[in-house]
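pasting Type II toxin-antitoxin system VapB family antitoxin for the record, 98 residues
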Amino acid sequence: MIFKRVGDGRPYPDHGMSSRGWASVPPRQVRLDQLVTIKDTLQLAALLDEDSTFYGDLFAHVVEWRGEYYLEDGLHRALRAALQQRHVLHARVHTMEG
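structre below
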C-alpha cells in the first residue's frame, strides 16, 4: 500500500493558509505510508507531465490534524515518488490544533 488511506475531501476545518503562508513552512520528509489523501481521483496527464510543478510549489502540502497527515496538495508528486520506489516525500507540514 502506498498511502495510509485514500480519503475523499478534507476532514479538517479551513486552515486559511495562503501561498505565502505555505512558503514560510520549511519542508521536511514525510513517509508516504503515513499520508491520507484528500483526493480520490488522479489526472494521468498531470502525473506524466514533467513540468507540472513549474508554476507551483516544489513541495507537497500536508496538514497534520488529530494525529493524521493529510496530503492536501501533491498527490501526483507523491505517486511519482512511489513509482521511483522512494518511501518519503519532501513536504511542507502545517500542524492544526484540533
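The domain at 5-11+18-96 is CATH 3.90.1530.10 (Conserved hypothetical protein from pyrococcus furiosus pfu- 392566-001, ParB domain).
Strands lie at 5-6, 27-31, 35-37, 60-65, 68-73, 88-96.
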